[in-house]
Amino acid sequence: MRQTERDRKHERAEDGMDVMDTYVIVDLETTGHSVKSGDELIEFAAVVVQGSEVIERYSTLIRPSRPIPPFITQLTTITDQDVASAPAFEDVIPDIWKMLDGRVFVAHNVSFDLNFLNESLELAGYLPFQGRAIDTVELARILYPTLESHALESLADTFGLVHTDAHRALSDAEATAELFIQQLNRLRTLPVVTLKQLRRLSESWTSNIEPLLDDLIVEIGIRPDDETTYDIHRKIALRRLTDSFEPAVEREPFEPFLHRTIEETLPSLFDQFEPRQSQFEMMRHVYKALDDEATLLIEAGTGTGKTLAYLIPSAHHALETKRPVVVSTHTIQLQEQLLNRDLPILKAIFPEIEFTLLKGRRNYIDLRKFEMVLEETNDGMLSAMCKAMVLVWLTETETGDLEELSLPGAATQGPASFKRLIQADAATDFGRFDPWYSRDFFTRAVLRSKEADIIVTNHALLFSDLQHQAGILPTDTPLILDEAHQVEEVASHHFGVTFDAIQFDRLFKWFGYGADGKFHSRLLQLADLTSVSEETEAFSKETDQALAQVDVELDDLLTALQSLGKKKDQRQTVRFEREGDVFRPIREVAKRLENRLRTLRMSLRQMLRLLDEHKEHMTFKQRAVIGDLKAFIGDVREIESVLYETMLTRDDDAVSWVELNLANRKLTSVYTQPVEIGPLLHERLFAKRPTILTSATMTVSGRFGFIERRLGLDGQDVRRVVLASPFDFKKQAKLFVPSDIPLINEVPLPHFVDQIAASIARIANVTKGRMLVLFTSNELLRLTHEAVRHQLDDAYTLLAQGVSGGSRSRLTKQFKRIDQSILFGTASFWEGVDIPGEALTCLVIVRLPFAPPDQPVIQARSEKIEATGKSSFFELSLPQAVIRFKQGVGRLIRSKEDYGAIFVFDRRVETTRYGKQFLNSLPAVDRIEGSLETSLAELELFLDEKEETTLGNQR
Questions:
Q1: Where are the alpha helices (DSSP H) in 458-501?
Q2: DSSP string, 592-642
């Protein structure tokens, strides 16, 4: 079938309008990815855009010479029957060429569409299209730099584009045309100074967009509004920030305020507001603890709404006492969620509240560094794209937080990545000598935090600030620790030290040793200008020699560390005692490396001293070289310190281990962490400020004893509150523990994998997928995924962490979007994954989540407990596993409308004395006993009943 549409506008274009400014947006559907492998077109569509309007459309099915593969039919819905009477490719080439001739070729991922089409044309004996081409994926990356996904479907959702028939050529071409028109309009809104920077960078892009940018720059000319809309400084445009101010109001007492908030304010802010008694109880407990400057442990079950339950009393208390409250979340992602979802609600309740989000310095862009990177001209395509993304982003961002940017993966990884080059850090902070000082985003964030009522941060910055006593966060104001069950691990990590061999790569590459010598040559050029070239050159030679010696000693150290490996595994973790005989030769090599690093640092300091004496007469850019040299010296000093703390000093209260990669010695890391973090936390945190610790999972069998012991709160004056979930688990969920699934130690591993794979497949056929399967081992996950894949038909989509590719966030989004999908997860999927609604109907826990006993930190903690005559299993391993189990179960029911089944394949919850602790820590839920067959019959009845109830409610 062929369809063509021409209107009067197109006829006018043919009568004399310049078609060079006309764009043809093309989309192809094909039997595969490679013409050379015999793949062919099955559908072609083109949409012609002139100005900001569509003036012509064309689409046709194409008959291939071989059957369409089933997965292509599944993706596109195009069948062999659909194309049976369609023209062959050779028959439609004249029409295709008529659409392309003299126009700019535009596609979403242009390299695929244009290359496939050109190879097909050449195969048919025609000339390829050789005109200009523009890639809307590339433009989307640059013009919408904060979007996580640039897939067409995702962009269509974001911008409300018409895209009713994804993976059909005309629908995709129409959506891409709409997107391209939006992109043209977005370019017109950018300040001229940014367009000029983009024009310079565009020569390295895939898209031939230079003529378009030239025309826009001429068309816009000098736009006076740019100066008032943007803050233009040193040829870079930033978003102009304005400080809003709400006058302070007198605070009413908390109880009457709370009643008014419950009865009037919250119902006005939510369409379907349902009062939750546990949430209001939590508000009262939090306010009372803040008012009494007390330490409070409060477990708030899933659905309590704990974030608002601590934010509202915190805001009231902060405004009432003129003392800020610091709120710390486990991750930056949770921090952002709180900022975007919950703090706007808080602002609606307290219009005068001032809140700020504060992260570590390295999360922010350093505008001085970016300016210098921007001026470098030897750009590859990746670098040019990243610079363009940052330029556009700077016209939008209020925070300068690099996490907002969705830079390509290659631009964020490694010691010399683009992101690393533009990150702020303390060592290269020029303070008031920086021409960007008044616009520095991190400085602004810190200054805002001094005026804020609520400061939102993350555990990493909180404990890093505590350890280094950097003074970024206030130390004597009330603190809320959300996700408090994570505090021990995060604090242990930040009070520990890591020696990472990859740090030396940055050391060598950045200075120029063994690379292009870029920074080294900048130093020598500066020395020439300041008349100290002879002395500097002498020290430069010393530095080169010192770097070479460091390289040799590092190689010896990594070789010595590899000797600790006891197994043939490529990757292994080995705990070591620093005072033992085995470690003595390693310690000797480490001492030599420390001496070489000290020699290097002293040589660099001499060079710095010479240059520093002349800095009063230097330009900003020349001073920047000195600043970078200071940073480099700081890096060397830091590595010296880390080397000493991990391998050269004795610490009986710490545990040390090495992570080896036998395939690549440069991936070796040495760690040292305190065995017990409780005393440190008590001394530096809990003894100095009122603290509220909250989480959905803090208790074991209803008691806080475990977390109190681990955090150094046992024996302290602590308030304890447990608030049950408002969800009715007896109605919303069923718990199944099939009696005929073997334990992993009862049968050979292949037999165990076959059994659980068969069980997962049978459950999936009842639930129609919609399953999250949680593992404690990557290897078991991989084996089970492979086995399930062979037991289910193609109607099911299997997504597996570490197998399918993609981040946790991406896998979760795919799982929500794809019907009949099963998600296999380990580690991070046990918590922090929110999948409300029908996307998740069944949760499978394959094994109870005990931490591996050979993990160095767990091992050392267990030994310390055993030395006191207590059981490390009951004091440490079991409570940890129970809390993790509660986290896993919490993935299933996320709202009052949710329902689902929990399958626990580990019979130890039923057959062991300690297993009851797992079940007793869950909300009251009906437990179904018996074989898998019995469980499946009960499951089917339960789901039928729930689906009927849901349909009834919808009617």
A1: 459-468, 487-494
A2: HHHHHHHHHHHHHHHHHHHHHTTGGG--HHHHHHHHHHHHHHHHHHHHHHH
CA-wise closest residue to 400 among 374, 427, 361, 348? 361
Other Cβ atoms less than 10 A from the Cβ of 269: the count is 13
22-74 per-position pLDDT tens digit: 999 999 999 999 999 999 999 999 999 998 899 999 999 999 999 999 889 88
| Residue 155: CB atoms within 10 Å | 23
Give me the residues paired with residue 901 across strands: 734, 842
Is the four-CA dihedral 203, 205, 206, 208 of positive or negative sign?
Answer: negative
Query: Tokens standing for 79?
Result: 């069948």
* Long-range contacts, 608-615 (Cβ 8 Å, 24+): 608/633, 610/527, 610/532, 610/535, 610/536, 610/539, 611/523, 611/526, 611/527, 611/530, 611/532, 611/536, 613/532, 614/530, 614/531, 614/532
CA atoms within 13 A on the CB side of 726: 17
Alpha helices in 652-777 (DSSP H): 678-681, 705-711, 729-732, 749-767
Residues in the chain: 955
Indicate if the pLDDT at residue 11 is higher than 50. Answer: no
Contact predicate 932/762, CB 8 Å = yes
CB within 8 Å of 620: residues ≥ 6 apart: 433, 434, 435
The pLDDT tens digits of the residues spanning 631-653 come to 788 888 989 999 999 999 888 89
- Alpha-carbon torsion (705, 710, 714, 717), positive or negative: negative
User: How far apart, in Å, are the Cα atoms of 235 and each of 194, 214, 371, 429?
Assistant: 8, 18, 9, 21
Strands 355-357 and 654-661: unpaired
* Residue 681 exposure: Cα atoms within 13 Å on the Cβ side: 30
Give, in order, the Cα–Cα distances in Å from 54 to each of 16, 180, 243, 934: 18, 11, 42, 60
Q: Which residues of 811-825 are buried (b: 16+ CB within 10 A; e: fewer)?
A: bbbebbeeeebbbbb
Q: How far apart are the first and last CA of the chain?
A: 41
Which of 302, 774, 694, 712 is CA-nearest to residue 495? 712
| 704: Cα separation from own chain's centroid | 31
Q: What is the pLDDT of residues 597-633, one digit of tens each?
A: 999 899 888 888 888 887 777 777 777 788 778 878 8
Give the position of tokens 């990150």. Answer: 423
Q: 163 exposed, middle or buried (CB, 10 Å; 0-12, 13-18, 19+)? A: buried
Sheet of 53-61: strands edge to edge?
Answer: 2-6, 53-61, 41-50, 22-30, 104-107, 133-135
